[in-house]
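Encode chain A's predicted structure.
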Amino acid sequence: MAFREFTRSDRMSAQILRVVAVAVREEFEYDDELKHVAISDVDVTKDLSIATVYFNTLFPEQAKQAAAILKENAPFIRSIVAGKIRARRVPELRFVYDASLERGANLESLISKARDSDPGFEEEE
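Encoded structure for chain A:
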């Protein structure tokens, strides 16, 4: 039995990621709340019924407003996805804010503070 490198849900995730990223950029280009939104990842369940779409914003304070707009427009975005990919059923889209960039920046600042407070720390070159 041959080993599959990618599952069907992985392939569907990649397709949905491409289509949703373009759709959000093009269809909502004049919407100020979604102007700085980037789609970072998509996870599709194994039965291909639900796609969780993760997004980031340039300004974290806009995350709640962007999430509300994306949730409200999820059926419209899903119809765009249905027109662009070949699938019998298009998964329901659920939008979730991805706070990983904020967590990474917070960790980086904590590490910098720890380095600055340690007098014996010497950075390697």
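The domain at 8-117 is CATH 3.30.300.20 (GMP Synthetase; Chain A, domain 3).
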